[in-house]
Amino acid sequence: MSKLLYKIGKTAFDKPWLFIASWIVIVGVVIAMIGSNGIHTSSEMKIEGTESQKVLDKLEQELPEASGGQGSVVFTAPEGEQLNTPERLSAITAAINSVYELDYVINPAELAAAAAAASGASPSGEASQGDQTAQASNGQTANQADAGAAMAEMPPYGPLIVDGMPVPGMLIATDGSVALFQFQFTVQQNSLPAGVTDSVVEAVTEAEKGTGITVLPSDSLKSPEIPIGINEVIGLIIAALVLVMTLGSVVAAGLPIVTALFGVGIGVGGAFAISNFVTMTSFTPVLALMIGLAVGIDYALFIVNRQRRLIFDQGLTAREAASRAVGTAGSAVFFAGLTVIIALCGLLVIGITFLSMMAIVAAVTVFLSVLIALTLLPAMLGLVGERICSRKAREKSSSKSSDKQHGVADGWVKGIVKFRWPVIIAVVAILGIAAIPVAEMKLGMPSGGTANLDTAQRQSYDAISSGFGEGFNGPLLIVAEPKDTDGTITPQALAGIVQDIQQVDNVSVVSPLGVNENGTIAILSLIPNTGPTDAETKNLVQELRAADSAIALNHNVVLGVTGFTAINIDMSAKLAEVFPLYVGIIVILSLIILLLVFRSILVPIKATVGFLLSVLATFGITTAVFQWGWASQIFGADTGGPLMSFIPILVTGILYGLAMDYQVFLVSSMRESYVHGYRGKQSVIHGYNQASRVVVAAAVIMVAVFAGFIFTHDIMIKQIGFALAIGVLIDAFIVRMALVPAVIAIFGDKTWWLPKWMDRLLPNLDVEGDKLIAELNAKDGANAHKSH
């Protein structure tokens, strides 16, 4: 491996423009594809195989008009005033009519007319499909009186009446301070063409002009956007400062930034280029940007730092030092990148499309970062030449003794080695305490109720909760089917089902929305008493789905539950189910790679145990901040709520790969010291001194890049950025820089023990470049002999 990379590095150094031009052409192709295909992102997060998705898929086949997404808008009056004045009612009605005239929005009036015409031709006298669809469009207005009669007391709201007629889809609070407009699209929101939701928002906001009304569109009408802003640039600036401090040269510091931008430019740009052909969520490229920037800078830093050390310590030319750096540090970069790619690709076994797409884009970006570090970087080093180290830096380096160069690191590692047992106990205790909140971690999807107080989504959520009840923020769609294949659901049976569901605990309102033409599927809308992320709502969904529930047995039906709230509940359950399998796969594969790299039994096991400690502490701290609200305002979150349901899997995979990066670079340096003759504690101290500075710099850079995403407005990106930043901080500085040298110091040379049969079986990858160096030294000796 090291010999091959050495040749690649030397070729790239000698022919820089060939390699640079090749990568520039690739960037040009990506830009051309984006210009041709455009950028298309979606809010779709479909979870195949879940109960809610199965119900939606069936509705799309049997009753497509009932499977469309729902939008809602809240109208509020100024404090102490009412909406039901003539001017305001006129403005609201005009805005609603404008929405119903838009494409992809179901118009109840048109459907009612079609239903009336169709019902006269119906021989059975039953409601036709068009009539049922009209019911579906304004079920919560047409059925409100019946639903209210079934309740012990009348709800504090009712239909909005204008000129003696109810306005389709409108409810108004009894005090007239807030009104809720609910309507249905012909398709799910993620299938709507670009601009449809923007047109809806534009139409309803017309009601604000000159009326004093405040219009608050719900989160479902928010157009998908790419949550990338100025905060990520701040992270890059911090990374650049760290690079200058570490490498001591603006020229040397600029190379990792440039190569990292090439990697994410091609990776993220390539994802955008194909977004017209695949379904891609708005934060899929953000994940690739996060990881691509972090690993791209770090991998280039390791190689540039190794080149400069070879120049300073061994007096090599820039050409020879660059080639050897690619051959030695480049081998560690290759295997470090491989662990990250494996951790990301492990997400594919889960079988969730949007997570798989995120994993693929991020893994390809990491692969590009590795490839660029091994080809483009040495080419750019070839252009820089001997200027990679200034004359002043060379003189300064030669005037320093080895001990003074590593004064801080040397003192730190010697203290760790001397007090190894207290260090191990302290690390385990600190991380154990930090992990305590994990026991109360709740998973779900961010909603309007967890958005910041100054956002329209949160204000809409609060207005709906105060005017109509928190359950109106998360309605459930109930689908009833007869258990018998030849059975049907009659109007009388449907009425009985509605009455029985109304008696279930935590049910506020049940409204029948209709039956299909064959009478084999009945649709109902259910409003819970509790909010979308409450445990009581989850229990209600499970109770309704139970095959042995009283409703299912009494009416001989099967009840399915779907809707945004049910989909989120199913997503959390699905991810929790596959999490152990995912962790098992990536751990086993990574253990094999670490076994090959370090040729040791202990090192892979120790690395994995250390990671488990750091990841539990990471989730504990993340839970305390975003769920409990501890110091959350510092990070731009003023409301606690559940963690994203896919954060455990996503963060665990990414952090495992990144943790193994630091494991590879730090411990490979210790093994290199052992291979070159250092023994026992001295191999730990010498190896630590050689690698610690660059590992610390790499970790600071990675934390800075991830932290830049914490202050974005998107709560999902905010949580991911925080978890990754705190995870790298814990793993790099507590586990790798303290726990690892302490444990290796205890085992000493036994750390590198490997059974003889396994030693013969495993291929020698020469990650430390020992064979390469021996071959190069032999050549140098032969050349010196010839010259004499």
From TrEMBL:
Bias-annotated ranges (Polar residues): 129-144
Transmembrane parts of this sequence: 20-39, 233-266, 286-304, 325-352, 358-384, 421-439, 579-598, 610-631, 643-670, 691-711, 723-748
Subcellular location: Cell membrane
Keywords assigned: Cell membrane, Membrane, Transmembrane, Transmembrane helix
Membrane topology of the entry: Multi-pass membrane protein
Region (Disordered): 121-147
Principal place of residence: membrane
Pfam families from the UniProt entry: MMPL
Gene3D superfamilies listed in its UniProt record: Multidrug efflux transporter AcrB transmembrane domain (1.20.1640.10)
Record domain SSD: where: 233-383
Listed SUPFAM superfamilies: Multidrug efflux transporter AcrB transmembrane domain (SSF82866)
Name of the protein: Membrane protein YdfJ
Gene: ydfJ
